[in-house]
Amino acid sequence: MENGRPAAFITGIGVVSPIGVGRKEFWSSLLANESGAGPITLFDTDGFDVRIAAECDSFEPTDFMERKVAARTDRFAQIGLASAKLALEDADAWGELENNAERVGLVLGSGIGGVTSMETTQATIDSKGPARVNPFSVTKIMPNSAAAHVAIQLGVQGPSITGALACTCGTDMMALGYDLIRRGDADVVLCGASEASITPVIVAGFIAMRAMSRRNDDPEGACRPYDVGHSGFLIGEGCAVMVLESAESVERRGAEPYAKITGVGRSTDAYNLTDPDPKGRGITRAMRLAVESSGLSGDEIDYINPHGTGTVAGDGPESMAMAEINPNAMVSATKSTLGHSLGASGAIETAICALAINAKTVPPMRNLDKLAEGCADLDYVVNEPRKAPDLEAALCANLGVGGHNAAVVLQRA
C-alpha cells in the first residue's frame, strides 16, 4: 500500500524494439522521432501485397544467451529473455533472485506465441517428412515458452502467469503483475509481453483481413493514427519487461522507481470479432475503470498513450473515448514509430508512460498531418517531444481483436 492505496512500483525497464535494444537507446530514439519501419527481411515477401514492417533488426540473441539456448528458443522467447535480463540489470535487482527467488513472480504474455517455429515445423514436415521435425518444436511453439525460459535461465521461483489476449495482452499482463503485488503474492514481479510474428502466415492473414497499410513505397509514413490518410496498421515486433515491486521492497532495497501503477481497467465489447464497437463503449469503460481504481479523476490524467493503430475502424471510437476521459490530455500514439507489435504493444507502451512520467517529457507520434473525419480534436504531440513539468499521471489503453479492452494508470512515484 502507498498512501493508503495499492501500488506496484516500476523500478526496472528492459526493451527490445525496432528503434533500439535497452532502455536508454529505446528512449533516446523515441524522443528523436526515429522510425523503426522498413522493408521486411525476416521472410521472402515476393507475391505479398504488404512488404513492410518494423523489425528488431539490431537484436542479436547471442548477446543475451548461449548459442545452444538460442537454437532451442523461438524468436519471441529470445526477445522476452533478453528484455527480462535488461530489466533486472536496470533495476539492479539480481540480488532478489539470488536471495529471495520464491518471492519473485513472473508475468510474461504473448498474443500469438512461437508462430515462427510453428511455420518452420510445418515446412519441415512438408519438405522432409515428420521424422525430421526438431525435438524442441513443441517447447518453441508453446505460448508460455518465453516465461519458461526466463524462469529457468534466471531462477524465478514465485508465481508465473502467461496470458494471450490478442493486442490487449501486454496491458493485461501489466494489470496481472499489479495484482500479484497488491495481493502480496510476490515482492518483485518480472512483468511484460513479447511478440515476434512477422511471418508469412500472420502477414498474409492480416492482408486478407484488409487490416494493414499497403504503403510499401513509404514504410516510415505507413502507420498514420487519426490522420486523414490512415489506411491500416504496420506490423512490428518487440518486447518490454518491467520490474514491479511492492512499496516495502522498494524501501528495503533503496530503489528509485520510474513510476507506479495505481489503477487497472478491463472490459469486453461483445460486438465483433475484428472491429471495435463503433461507439467506443468498451474502451471508454476500461479507461474509466482504470482511472477510478487509481483514485484519480479524468482531468488528472495528463498523458494518454493509446492503441492508435491507424485503422479507420479503430481510430475514431478510440479518440472519442479519450475525449470522454480528458479532452485536454496530451496524446501520442507511438505505434506510428514502432509499428504494432500485437500482444507486446501494451507492455511497451506502459514502459513509455513510465519513462515519460520520470523524464517529464512526452514522446512524439508521427504522420498526423490532418485529422481524419470522426476523430476527436485532442492535444496530439506530433514530431517533436514536449516537455511536461507538471506530468503526474498517464494512461495506457489497448484494444484487442475479439473485443478485448484493457487500461492501466501510472503515477509519479
- Quote the distance from N terminus to C terminus: 12 Å
Number of helices: 14
**What is the N-to-C succession of helices and strands?**
EEHEEHHHEHHHEHEHEHEHEHEHHEEEEE
CATH superfamily of the largest domain, by name, is Thiolase/Chalcone synthase
Mean pLDDT: 96
The CATH architecture of the largest domain can be given as: 3-Layer(aba) Sandwich
CATH class of the largest domain, named Alpha Beta
Structural class: alpha/beta
Oligomeric organization of the protein chains? single chain
Helix content: 25-40%
Describe this structure in words.
This protein has 413 residues and is an alpha/beta fold. It has 2 domains: 8-253, Thiolase/Chalcone synthase (Peroxisomal Thiolase, Chain A, domain 1, 3-Layer(aba) Sandwich), CATH 3.40.47; 261-411, Peroxisomal Thiolase, Chain A, domain 1 (3-Layer(aba) Sandwich), CATH 3.40.47.10. It is 35% helix and 19% strand. It contains 14 helices and 16 strands. A hairpin with a 2-residue loop joins strand 1 and strand 2. Helix 8 (169-183) packs across helix 14 and helix 11 packs parallel to helix 12. The model has no long low-confidence stretch (mean pLDDT 96).
